[in-house]
Amino acid sequence: MVALLEVRGLNAWYGESHILHGVDMYVGEGETVTILGRNGVGKTTTLRTITGIVRARRGKISFAGADMMQVPLHKTAHKGIGFVPEERGIFSTLSVSENLLLPPVVAEGGMNLDEIYELFPNLYERRASAGTKLSGGEQQMLAIARVLRTGVKMLLLDEPTEGLAPVIVQRIGEVLRKLKERGMTILLVEQNFRFASRIADRFYLMDHGQMVTEFPVGELPQRMDTLHSVLGV
Ligand SMILES: Nc1ncnc2c1ncn2[C@@H]1O[C@H](COP(=O)(O)OP(=O)(O)OP(=O)(O)O)[C@@H](O)[C@H]1O
Q1: Treating both helix axes as pointing N-terminal to C-terminal, what angle do 166-181 and 136-148 enclose, rounded to 10 degrees?
Q2: What is the distance in A from the centroid of ligand 1 to the CA of 45?
Q3: CATH domain 3-231 topology
Q4: Residues with C-beta less than 6 Å from any ligand 1 atom
Q5: ipTM more than 0.90?
C-alpha cells in the first residue's frame, strides 16, 4: 500500500515538556487508521503536530510527497490534510450553512453542498440554525461536513464520538464508512474502542509519546489481552 502520510522519528514539545518521543507511523491511501491509548499519552499532540499547530517539533512528516515540516499551518489544508479538532470549532453566531461555506476550497474533488446535505440530512434540516442551537452530535457532524467541502485527501479526527449518545455515534460511524467508500483516508484518535473496531483497518497503540504496537483489524481477537491491560477496555 502506498503511504499517503508518513511520520518518522517525530518529537514534539509544549514549552519545556517533551511530549512526543519519536513517533513512527504511516497511513496508506484510502486507509482508516485509529490511534488508541490512555489519557495523556500524546494522541491529540500527534494530530496537532502533524497539522503544524504544534511547531516545536523535530523529525519527518511527509504527505503525498510533500515535506510537511516546511509547510506553515495555514497551508496544511492546501496540501490536503483536514483536521477536525476535539473542540470542533463551530462558529456559534453563524448558521449551519454559513459555517459550511466558511473554509476555503483548496482542491478539486471536495463535496458540494447538495452532496454534504445528502450525507448529513439533519444538517439540511438545521441549515438556518445558529451554531449555538445545535446539539453536540450536530456540531460534530458540522465539524466533519465543513472539512469535506474543501477537497482535502485526508481527515484527522480527534475523538469524534466523545460525549455523544450511542445513536449519534452509530450515525457518525456510517458517515465515516461512506467517506471511506469514496476513497477518503482517515486518521482517528478514539477512546471508544467499540466504535473504532467497526471502522478501522489498522490500529496503533500509543504510550509515553511513542507508538508501541501496530496491528490490522483482523488481529484484534489476539490483541484483546494487551488492550485490556493497557486501555482497560
Ligand atoms: N497546551 C499544552 N501545554 C502543555 N502541556 C500540554 C498541552 N496540551 C497537552 N499537554 C500535555 O501533553 C500530554 C499529552 O497530551 P495529549 O492531549 O496529546 O494526550 P492524549 O493522549 O490525546 O490524551 P487525552 O485523551 O487526555 O487528550 C499530557 O501530559 C498533557 O497534559
Answers
A1: 10
A2: 6
A3: Rossmann fold (3.40.50)
A4: 14, 17, 19, 37, 39-45
A5: yes
